[in-house]
Amino acid sequence: HKEGGEGEGVSEEEMEEMAIKARWGFAFVTIIIIFSVAFVKGSEFVKHAVPEELEEVVAALMEELTTLGFLGFAFFITTMDLGGGESLIEQASIYALNEPEALKELFEGLHYLVFFISLSFILCTVGGLWNFQYGPGGNKAWAIYEEHGIDVAMGEKKEVLSIERSALNAHGRLATEWAKDDATSQAEYLRIRTRFILNSEDPRLDADFDFHKYLQRRVGEIFSSLIEVEWRDWLVTWLVLLLFWSVVQEGMIMEKLLLLYGLFMIMIMAFCLLLQAKVVWVKNQLLPRVPEEMRESYSSGSLSARAKSSPATSRGVELCPPVSEDQRMVQGAGNIWETYFDKAMELIQVHKRPGNKHERLFWFGSWGPNIMLHMIRLSLLWVIISLALLLSHHLPGIIQLGQAITGLRFFGYLLFFLVAAWHILAMLIVFTTARVYTVCTSIEMLKDSHLIEKIVREQKYTKCSKAIEMLFTLNYYLEQAQMLEKAGKEGSTSPRELQQAMFVPETPEEQKALDDLEELFNAYDADGSGELSPQEVKELLQTMGTNLDDEDLTKLIRVMDADGSGEISLMELASVMLNKKKLNGAQTKLSDVGKQLFDMFDKEGDGTINVQEMVECFSKMGKNWDMDQVHMFFDLIDQDGSGEVDRAEFMDFCNELESMRK
After folding, report:
1. Which residues contact 226 (CB under 8 A, 6 or more apart)?
2. Would you say the pTM of this structure is higher than 0.85?
3. DSSP helix, strand, coil percent of the chain (3-state; round to 5)
4. For 322-354, how does the pLDDT look when each residue is reduced to its tens digit (9 = 90+)?
């Protein structure tokens, strides 16, 4: 302010302008906050929407966006006034062209491009996740195919393994791959799954191995690695851009830029199709064959001596080795590329191992699978960059081009949407290629043994969790019988005290305990009267291994019979059993009660139990048990398959379950 008082020298127009700027400043802050909240909520939605196995893909995307955000911040710093009146980019512009604004527009365009690369990363990742979940042959389809997996692995439903001759694609033609129906996709999945399980040795897999979950986890690993762009990928991208720059440097007129952009798009699509053709060919080389297909190949004389041998038969399933077992065909696959690559490695004195039969299906020998993954990642990165260029720089030029060709602006917008659709198609091709690549690098000689062992442990724990629940339910019944026995011997609680301490469930756990007790109660209420007679109470205790003489039984009935009717109602029983349980507190360890549970099963007292004894014991416990689960429970304990379990086996199993719970 000038001298003469606060506010003097400021006109009303200037005050109004300042007020407008303040309002717009607040509006901009509000918009930024709205976008920030929307981004956070969108991230949370995506994290919850994707399967657990794909959460690492979302995490990888967030890391990449953080990197791009840092680049945007770096661009911002270079355009800031450093106190000398000029920014870094203005100083560089003065040094190069003696004009402070000459490079600023170009640099701001690059800043704009980084923003759209971030946006394209998000769009492509979400599109890839959708493609994996709902695309043809994706996760939803795998889950449906997996439903037949156990039956096929056990030698049933052999018809689902058949593939029509016209759909067989040993040469990996893309047209045949794109035209195949769902039945063919299912047959391929089940053939691969069955051979995967039958050929497993360490660990040996059961027919119910969750192959679907295994592939899901592998897809999560591969897809997350696609999002995490490495320095090598940026270096190759820079070299490609250097090639285009050598053409552009002579003059950046709009027509030349659009032409180069079109060539860049064609190059990306050709690269994507080439990679997909390769992985489809590899997949078909790894696809197990059925005897009928082997006989046809034999008659054509295209099989090696090993491949002509009889098919492997296990669990009633006949599956022959895949085409990759035919060494002559493998040697002819991509050997020119591998020869040149090996010579190049020798020149720079880099040594690599020859590679196994599976790895040699890819280009570049033992490095083939990793180099293929880098090329798929490059194709995705280039699609993202091309989409960002379209949105940030070429949108006006493409619209003008369409309008210039037809004279109508509508065709300009139509041309833009066609180019955008081209990018969507390229993105779907990349992610489909990545999914097929995942299958190719997860089977045969490239199995992930660590992941297989992890899934086997998880499946075992899931089965054992049901066993844990069953044992704790039995333990609960055993505890109730002990409480009743103690109450009968002590006779310390009067009916009046009991009536004052009627059990009222206060927590979900207490309500569940009351529900379980009601099932037990109803099982011994033979006449359905809603009350247990002294004889029914005695039978209940005998079933759970507790025998009371007549005197102790009379004391117990007197303790529980709050209304003096001579019979015991559910709430009278609960008032003794559950109130005492409430006071007792801590949860008993399975390893501590294993002996009592074994004695409950061992009705004959011979030191061993069989499945029939276990079934009879469970059936008398008053709960609506699933007897298939009881049989599975017994099989988990009976490790040697003898049909009998001794005390040591049972205690070892209880100790193992206890360790799993920790």
Report:
1. 128, 373, 376, 377, 380, 434
2. no
3. 70, 5, 25
4. 766 654 444 444 455 566 666 665 665 556 667
